[in-house]
Every structure is written in structure tokens, then in C-alpha cells.
Amino acid sequence: QVQLVESGGGLVQAGGSLRLSCAASGSIFSIDTMGWYRQAPGKQREMLATVTGGGNSNYSDSVKGRFTISRDNAKNTVFLQMNSLKPEDTAVYYCNAGVRTTIWRRDVYWGQGTQVTVSS
Predict the structure, then answer these.
(1) Are 84 and 15 within 8 A, CB to CB?
(2) 75-91, pLDDT tens digit by residue?
(3) How far apart are CA 108 and CA 100, in angstroms?
(4) Which long-range contacts (CB under 8 A, 24 or more apart) does 104-112 make?
(5) I want to staple 35 with a disulfide (CB 3.0 to 4.6 A). Which of 16, 50, 105, 111 is the partner?
(6) pLDDT, tens digit, for every residue of 17-67?
(7) Helix/strand/coil (H, E, C) string of the chain?
């Protein structure tokens, strides 16, 4: 079994910054792509950023230039540095990871979510 645990959410004023962390633990053989998503009330979950095991990253247009994804492969952890936050960034933020528990089995796991609230 694999668990992803997010931390770092909270309340921040517009223009401020937050850093989210997501640590994977459990029966892990390897992790390939890790990513961050968010879901605001009444909206669909949207992809924000992904990063491969080799460090190649991809961003949605809504966060490009403001958010930075990174990972620590030794600690099975992915980070999301969020700068210049806007009220419209308010949402529950989720991390996910493509995890191999054996060389033959790969599944996608999700964290439980962490609330980010940006006040105007």
C-alpha cells in the first residue's frame, strides 16, 4: 500500500506565497511522474504542474511563471512553490504520483488534499 500525504496549505493574502509538500510512503519500488492538481468548489479538478523522475516539468497556463514544481527523489517528495497568489487560486490542492510497487505493477495514487485559501 502507498500513501501520499500533503502539507503546507493554509490562508494567505493575495500576493503572498505558500509551499506545498507531498511525501509518498509505503511499498514503493519506483515513482515516475508526480503532479499537483486543484479543485475549486463547483469546478472540475485541473492539472497545475507535473514533473518526471528525470526532472522535466510541465505547467498549466494558469500557473506558469508563478508556481514551481520540484521533487526530491531520495525522499519520494514533490513540492509546489506558489508565488503571487490570487484569490482565484483558492481551492483544495492534491498531489498524485505514478508508483510502481513492483517492476510489473504501476498505479496512480492521490493525496487527501490540502486547502489553500487566498484572501483579497
Answers:
(1) yes
(2) 999 999 999 999 999 99
(3) 9
(4) 106/32, 107/2, 109/2, 109/3, 109/4, 109/24, 110/4, 111/4, 111/5, 111/6, 111/22, 112/4, 112/5, 112/6
(5) 50
(6) 999 999 999 999 999 999 999 999 999 999 999 999 999 999 999 999 999
(7) CEEEEEECCEEEECCCCEEEEEEEEECCCEEEEEEEEEECCCCCCEEEEEECCCCCEEECCCCCCCEEEEEEHHHCEEEEEECCCCHHHCEEEEEEEEEECCCCCEEEEECCCEEEEEEC
